[in-house]
Each structure stands twice: as structure tokens, then as C-alpha cells.
Inverse folding.
């Protein structure tokens, strides 16, 4: 069982206007959400960092928590918890869900990357890929990709890196790496399909 992480202490004065802020957020006030964020983001981030041991993930969850506050402020029940208690319970719940799902998600990402690679090269056929002409076609298609998309494809399918490893290697957010891979694979399939169509056209 994971060791319990205590909620951070809040000065009593920070709670004086939280009820009013939540009412304003429920009414659609973005300014009130900003004040609520400024009041509580730092200690909530500290809690998330301790739970997740990964600052990037903690910052992602922090944004999700305050987005949930924006969506669900009207559902807040003062009889059940204080505003800070509600906020921290949201943060703890999301952090634990993320921690439980990380391993499974990474396995799915790896499987998805392998499947995307298979789909990208399937139209060429395994035997054709073994020939120099096919390899040249792949290289030429890669050269037509934007540099940032070509790089993630090379790292994923030639060097065997996972999305997480690519993000670490490039110093890029994981979501950015995922989107680049998807865009690159889509573009590669389009380029290769267009070339095959051109070959099949009668002279």
C-alpha cells in the first residue's frame, strides 16, 4: 500500500473568501478561478509532486484539477468538506488514478506505436522492404516530412525508443511527441500511397 501523504497546511486566512470564490466560479467568473488558482496552486502542486514523484505529470494533473473546479464548482457541497478539502481530495484522487494507470498506459502506447509502424509499412509488403529500392522509397518519404516529425519517427522505429523515451531524449512534452508521431505516420502513409497510385496509372 502506498504511504499516506498528508495534506499541506493552509493558513486560516486563505479560507475566508474561498466559499465566495467558488460561488463566483460556479457563476462563470474566470477571474475568480484565477484568484482561487493563485491561492492554492503551489501547495496542491507540492502534494501532487509527492504523490507522483514526477513534476511534469504533477503539473498536468494540477491543470486538470482546476479545470474540474471550473466545471464542477456549482456541485461543491459545503456540508461535506471545506473548499480546500474538496480541492485536495480532487487532486489526490486524480493523482492516484494517474499513478495506477501509468504502467498500463505506457504499455498501450508502445503497442500503439508498433501497430502504427506496421500499418505504415504494410502497403509496401515485407519482401519489398528488404530490397534497396523500397528502403530508398522510405528514406525519400521521410525526407519530405518536417524535421521534428522525421526525428520522432527515426527514434521510434529505427532506434526502438518508446514515446516516453523520445520525450526524454528531445526534452519535449509527451503529448507533443505523440502528436508528432501520429502526424508523421499519417503523412508517410499518404506519401507512399500516392507513389503507389502513380505507379499503377497507365502510361
Amino acid at each position: 500500500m502506498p504511504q499516506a501523504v498528508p495534506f499541506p497546511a493552509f493558513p486560516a486566512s486563505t479560507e475566508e473568501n474561498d466559499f465566495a470564490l467558488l460561488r463566483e466560479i460556479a457563476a462563470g467568473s474566470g477571474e475568480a478561478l484565477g484568484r482561487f488558482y493563485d491561492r492554492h496552486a503551489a501547495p496542491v502542486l507540492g502534494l501532487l509532486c509527492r504523490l507522483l514523484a514526477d513534476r511534469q505529470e504533477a503539473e498536468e494533473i494540477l491543470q486538470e484539477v482546476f479545470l474540474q473546479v471550473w466545471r464542477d464548482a456549482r456541485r461543491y457541497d459545503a456540508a461535506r468538506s471545506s473548499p480546500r478539502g474538496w480541492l485536495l481530495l480532487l487532486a489526490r484522487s486524480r493523482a492516484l488514478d494517474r499513478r495506477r494507470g501509468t504502467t498500463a498506459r505506457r504499455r498501450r502506447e508502445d503497442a500503439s506505436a508498433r501497430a502504427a509502424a506496421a500499418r505504415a509499412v504494410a502497403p509496401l509488403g515485407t519482401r519489398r522492404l528488404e530490397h534497396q529500392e523500397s528502403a530508398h522509397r522510405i528514406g525519400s518519404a521521410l525526407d519530405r516530412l518536417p524535421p521534428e516529425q522525421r526525428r520522432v519517427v527515426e527514434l521510434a522505429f529505427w532506434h526502438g525508443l518508446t514515446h516516453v523515451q523520445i520525450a526524454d531524449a528531445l526534452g519535449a512534452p509527451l503529448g507533443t511527441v505523440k502528436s508528432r508521431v501520429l502526424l508523421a505516420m499519417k503523412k508517410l502513409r499518404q506519401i507512399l500511397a500516392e507513389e503507389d497510385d502513380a505507379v499503377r496509372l497507365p502510361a
The chain has two domains: 12-100, 125-200. The domain at 125-200 is CATH 1.10.10.10 (Arc Repressor Mutant, subunit A). The chain has a mean pLDDT of 75.
